[in-house]
UniProtKB/TrEMBL annotation, chain A:
Presence of the UniProt keyword Isomerase in the record: no
Recorded superkingdom: Eukaryota
Coiled coil spans: none
Residue stretches of biased makeup (Polar residues): 208-218
Keywords: Membrane, Signal, Transmembrane, Transmembrane helix
GO cellular component, one term: EMC complex
Sequence intervals crossing the membrane: 147-165
Protein name in the entry: ER membrane protein complex subunit 7 beta-sandwich domain-containing protein
TrEMBL record, chain B:
Record's subcellular location: Endoplasmic reticulum membrane
Leader sequence segment: 1-19
The entry's keywords: Endoplasmic reticulum, Glycoprotein, Membrane, Signal, Transmembrane, Transmembrane helix
Membrane topology: Single-pass type I membrane protein
Gene Ontology biological process terms in this record: protein folding in endoplasmic reticulum
Protein source organism: Rhizodiscina lignyota
Name used for this protein in its record: ER membrane protein complex subunit 1
One Pfam family cited in the UniProt record for this chain: Beta-prop_EMC1_N
PANTHER family, sorted: ER MEMBRANE PROTEIN COMPLEX SUBUNIT 1
Positions of the EMC1 first beta-propeller domain: 19-423
Length: 233, 934
């Protein structure tokens, strides 16, 4: 008798649905390790229900009347997916799908209905990383910077080219000098002076007239040098 | 799901900048996690689980925040903000002895929480009924869960016994007699419902209904003839529970006798009120143990205006008599008592302004007496919660959490202060930054020199420099220390703070006090001063305006609307400054504005003195049915470095920069619409207005204006058909003209009028472009970072109630000119524009509070520092949070990433290189001259 009485008294409260949203155990996180400040909200027009995480890793919403709700989970450590939860009909049927921010409300994703009727599953998506690491000094990134590359290249040219010329046999040397004369770039015979005359500002400004002739001028020099060595061998 | 993850991470990757550096976190930011003022009936020491050696201090505060505190250091173990607003009469917190659960009752919600980690176990919603009382039945079931008794009024008083493990109803008793429910109480065998019924003539009769604990059946009912004494429920002093002999106590009309009834009996015992001297009517409080195994002793505490004293009584259960055991002597000043139990023994802890005394309930012998250390502000104990550990018959270490009348919560451990929590800071209603007087002083001196003739200025500067020399020896002494410790960039003393990170934050507290913090260490309060006399429970009618004085450095003006004159306080000490001729409200001010009845009235400086609304210069009314939900104005001091926005092709879009603009947002609840009006505050003209349909008008609508842009956020209403759901933010930018390199109708004119061009009636309206983004959650409040010159790019600061944080959204992403539906062109890329995406996810790296959880933050204020790159941020509401942000990185100061050792090593290596190479080069040069090249 008393039990029946209790049931009757509970009935008016349960006219609205009870929604239990659970967090499954995923490879990303064991839900039992989530902080106690984790909570979920159900949003509808003028309604905002809030439920903290329970010991059973669920969010329990009491007295949810029929409607279409947006479920958001707020957690310090993980970002969660948003769900659309519909409570429909007299029998308070509960359905849940993924929903995507910035999309139409009817654009539903996978169903997120839990195993038990009336249960809904919500999954964490990604761990939150609040911090930015300072980019420390690394040799590779240092060498990769264009300024350093340019400096290294010019260093090689300045130091390496005279050495290369000295090591050439006289025959090849004469041929090389001859070739330089024919190209008419006597002034640029010294790569160092070529580099010194290089109009960096003009090149950076994208001017093609003066600097354009400099770059190809160095190519025959190199090619000639290599060719000479090959013939000797 | 994978693509969702991709999307989320993709959105976060767009702008890798602007995060909190891992090594700056917890260094540059300060956070004071708070609970609110603990209430005496909701604060107790409790063991978080049955076999625990240490106990935690649990409280449910006046701000409805439930928390567990480690009594060792005062750190918060866990806390939960329960749905408020709560009125202290219907908040309850109970814990059963030896159980790992605390049960809270706030308004219509009963919830059981895991005592050790704060996770919810179960909750129960009472719908429209409010909880009237909550008790725990001590006898636990097989699983160790004590059942919960609740009383609520759902038309009739209803008593329910809830299962401790699940919250399900075990039995229910509905009182159909038409009485008003008051409280519920338990003894070891019975449950008592205490209700009032109106006596025939006047007054209230107390009715005690005994219920069987197991079945909830009514076994007995007693009517106590209290009608001559009691006219309102507040007059009941005490209802005990969970005791072998629960009591109910009240006083007679003349305040001469204390009337006590042991629940379940009919006899009312008259105890004389021990009022020896002229004190007319001392406040009476009862303290009795809350444990059925404890001795049935209780203490009556009398507090008069000047002194306090107490009587201890013993209850004889067999004879149902109450006898006085002993009296505690009268001591001057404020005092507070706490009752604690160890096994069956009952102890009373008395905390006065100067000492802490422990007595046993059995005899009047003092078990422990500890003098309190003298502090600056006298401890005026309001509420005490104590825990006694009986180690031996002679040693009783005691710790007591004392709430003093200034709102500080202190733990006394045998009289020594273990920690102090500034819980009164939960009541901050408004705040402002004030510069250090020293810094302002230099500016003042320089200004003085600027206005003197050359000779006088020179003499002045010379004397100033000579005076500065006095500080040289100490400066030289501190130099090595500064060099070694220059990492943080914060100086210890105000003189050395070159970066301007150190400022005072002046706070107005809801209880009528003004307090000051230091930005470099906001965890400790410098001073607090009461400027407004308010009774208990009274609040400031309107937040006062706090303003740094323009007349003298180091002074803050507190403008209370009602007072008409400001109170001027020295920021360093809080002492009221004696300045000649204080300014009067309205004087030397520009326009003043009043918002009343959904209309904004503007008064010219002369017009306001009349005070009448009819004298307003202009008024702005929203459409009928609309209500104004927010007004945001451009900050008074809002420097802008560039008047135009340079496009990728070197053309310029000129910004519409009007210092007199305000954004007024209004909603219509019937149509669900939001209208945003941009007003010229000089003429009252609407420069721009836009309406949205399908807005949830019950939610917060935040807005802000800065520079040439404004932003606002709202929640979409689902009932509007189709489209999307959630929360949105709108960014609007104002330009002089839609065409680049064009300055609009004003051209290069150096003068302009708000009233129109060349005396015409048409004002110059801006060209407004807007973009809307979906955001993940509701924004509570918006503000903008501020820097000294306005060169640094800005961030929009938003406070989030749901994720307990403050987010800085970079303006590069929140840009109204992002290309929609296509990739940006080369010019747009050069400008830094990225393709529009309808969602704007809050990257965790944007959270200024990073790992910290800033609960209940309502508003945030910003202030420029001396560094152009850096803006100071301070947020308040419940917690206190302060940090500094550098939206374009700290380009003007070496960061922690700068490796000094590496730099020194590089210099050394170069030096060595030079020494090595120099002879080689010299030899080569000499050879070159002497050798004839072939």
């Amino acid at each position: 008798m008393l039990k029946l009485f209790t049931l009757l008294s509970v009935l008016p409260v349960s006219l609205a649905a009870l929604i239990t949203v659970s967090i499954p155990n995923t490879p990303l996180v064991n839900p039992s390790s989530l902080p106690a400040s984790t909570h979920a909200t159900l949003d509808e027009h003028g309604v905002k229900l809030d439920a903290p995480i329970t010991r059973a890793n669920t969010f329990v919403f009491h007295n949810v009347s029929s409607g279409s709700y947006l479920l958001s989970v707020f957690c310090k450590d993980y970002a969660f997916e948003n769900l659309r939860i519909d409570v429909t009909g007299e029998e308070e049927r509960i359905e849940a799908w993924q929903t995507f921010r910035g999309n139409e409300w009817d654009n539903k994703g996978e169903s997120r209905a839990g195993v038990v009727p009336g249960q809904v599953e919500v999954r964490p998506v990604v761990a939150k990383d609040y911090y930015q690491q300072r980019s420390g000094f690394s040799v590779l990134s240092f060498l990769k910077s264009p300024m350093i590359l340019m400096a290294l290249f010019s260093l090689v040219m300045i130091v390496g080219m005279p050495k290369l010329l000295e090591n050439m046999d006289p025959e090849a040397r004469a041929e090389f000098d001859e070739m330089q004369k024919t190209t008419g770039l006597g002034a640029a015979s010294n790569p160092a002076s070529a580099m010194q005359n290089f109009d960096l500002a003009g090149w950076m400004a994208g001017a093609t007239s003066g600097s354009g002739s400099n770059t190809p001028a160095q190519q025959p020099e190199e090619r000639g040098g290599k060719g000479g060595q090959r013939r000797r061998g | 799901m994978r693509w969702l993850a991709l999307l989320l991470s993709g959105a976060w990757l767009v702008e890798p900048a602007l995060a909190v550096f891992a090594d700056d976190a917890f260094q540059i930011d300060h956070h004071v996690p708070l609970l609110g003022l603990p209430q005496s009936h909701t604060t107790f020491f409790h063991q978080p689980y049955a076999k625990s050696k240490a106990s935690l201090l649990y409280t449910l505060s006046d701000k409805a925040v439930l928390g567990a505190i480690n009594p060792r250091d005062g750190a918060i173990v866990w806390r939960q903000a329960l749905a408020g607003p709560a009125n202290s009469s219907n908040i309850f917190l109970r814990a059963g002895d030896g159980q790992d659960v605390v049960v809270s009752g706030v308004n219509n919600n009963i919830a059981a929480w895991a005592a050790s980690d704060g996770r919810l176990i179960w909750s129960r919603n009472l719908g429209n009924a409010l909880v009237h009382d909550l008790e725990i039945i001590e006898l636990p079931d097989a699983k160790g869960n004590g059942d919960v008794l609740i009383l609520y009024n759902d038309g009739h008083p209803v008593v329910q016994r809830l299962d401790g493990g699940s919250g399900n109803v075990k039995w229910e008793y509905i009182d159909k007699t038409g009485d008003n429910a008051f409280q519920v109480s338990t003894s070891s065998a019975h449950v008592y419902l205490i209700s009032f019924h109106k006596a025939i003539m006047s007054g209230l009769k107390i009715r005690v209904t005994s219920l069987d604990q197991l079945t909830g059946r009514e076994t007995d009912a007693q009517s106590l003839s209290s009608e001559s004494d009691v006219t309102s429920p507040e007059q009941i002093l005490y209802v005990g529970a969970n005791s072998a002999s629960p009591l109910i106590a009240w006083t007679d009309k003349a305040n001469k006798a204390l009337k006590v009834n042991i629940l379940g009996t009919k006899t009312i015992v008259n105890l004389p009120i021990n009022n020896s001297d002229e004190d007319d009517s001392p406040a009476i409080t009862l303290h009795a143990p809350h444990r059925s195994t404890a001795l049935t002793h209780f203490l009556v505490h009398y507090q008069s205006a000047r002194s306090h004293w107490a009587d201890v009584y013993h209850v004889n259960l067999a004879k149902s008599t109450i006898s006085k055991a002993y009296s505690l002597p009268k001591l001057a000043g404020q005092g507070a008592f706490s009752c604690s139990t160890v096994d069956a023994n009952v102890f009373f802890t008395r905390v006065t302004e100067s000492e802490m005394i422990l007595v046993s309930s059995a005899s009047h012998g003092v078990l422990g007496r500890w003098p309190l250390a003298k502090t600056q502000s006298p401890l005026l104990p309001l509420r005490v919660t104590a825990e006694v550990a009986a180690l031996s018959s002679s040693s009783y270490p005691t710790r007591a959490a004392v709430l003093s009348s200034n709102g500080e919560w202190t733990l006394l451990r045998n009289g020594d202060v273990s920690w102090t929590r500034p819980e009164y800071l939960t009541g901050v209603i408004t705040a402002t930054f004030v510069d250090l007087p020293e810094e302002q002083g230099l500016v003042h001196e320089l200004e003085l020199e600027g206005h003197q003739n050359a000779l006088a200025a020179y003499v002045h500067r010379l004397t100033r420099h000579v005076n500065d020399l006095k500080a040289l020896p100490s400066w030289l002494q501190s130099l090595p220390k500064t060099f070694m410790g220059s990492k943080s960039g914060i100086a210890d003393s105000p003189q050395k703070d070159k970066f301007g990170f150190r400022k005072y934050i002046i706070l107005a507290l809801e209880d009528g006090r003004i307090a000051a913090l230091d930005t470099t260490n906001p965890t400790s309060v410098l001073w607090s001063k009461r400027v407004l006399k308010l009774g208990p429970g009274e609040r400031w009618s309107a937040p006062p305006e706090l303003r740094a004085s323009s007349r003298k450095p180091g002074i803050v003006e507190v403008w209370d609307k009602a007072a008409g004159r400001p109170i001027e306080l020295e920021v360093e000490t809080g002492i009221e400054a004696e300045l000649p001729d204080s300014p009067v409200l309205g004087e030397h001010q520009g326009f003043t504005f009043e918002l009343a009845d959904n209309t904004i009235h503007a008064f010219s400086p002369s017009g306001h003195s009349n005070g009448a609304v009819s004298s307003s210069t202009w008024k702005f009314m929203v459409r009928t049915g609309d209500r104004i939900v927010g007004v945001a104005a451009r900050p008074v001091n809002d420097p802008v470095a560039s008047i135009g926005k340079v496009l990728g092709d070197r053309r310029v879009l000129y910004k519409y920069l009007d210092p007199n603009i305000a954004l007024v947002s209004s909603v219509n609840d019937a149509t669900g619409s939001l209208t945003v009006h941009l007003l010229d505050t000089v003429s009252g003209t609407t420069l721009h207005s836009v309406s949205y349909l399908g807005v949830d008008t019950t939610r917060t609508i935040a807005s802000t204006v800065a520079e040439n842009w404004f932003a606002y956020s709202f929640t979409l209403d689902d009932s509007a058909s189709g489209s999307s759901r959630g929360h949105q933010i709108v960014i609007s930018e104002m330009y002089e003209s839609p065409v680049p390199n064009d300055r609009g109708p004003l051209g290069d004119a150096s003068n302009y009028s708000s009233l129109g061009i060349d005396g015409g009636s048409q004002p110059v309206v801006p060209h407004v472009i807007s973009q809307t983004f979906h955001i993940p959650e509701e924004i509570q409040y918006m503000t903008v970072t501020r820097t000294r010159q306005g060169i640094t790019s800005r961030e929009l600061l938003v406070t989030l109630a749901d994720s307990h944080g403050i987010v800085a959204i970079p303006r590069q992403l929140l840009d109204a000119r992002r290309p929609v539906g296509r990739d940006p062109t080369a010019d747009e890329v050069a400008e830094g524009l990225v393709r529009y995406h309808p969602t704007l996810e809050f990257d965790p790296k944007w959270y200024l509070n990073h790992q910290r959880e800033v609960l209940g933050v309502k508003e945030a204020i910003t202030s420029p520092s001396n560094l152009e790159s850096t803006s100071l941020v301070f947020a308040y509401g419940l917690d206190i949070f302060g940090t500094r942000v550098a939206p374009s990185f700290t380009f003007d100061v070496l960061g922690k990433g700068f490796n000094k050792l590496q730099m020194l090593a590089t210099v050394a290596a170069l030096g060595v290189g030079v020494i090595v190479v120099a002879p080689l080069v010299r030899r080569k040069q000499i050879n070159q001259r002497w050798q004839i090249s072939s």
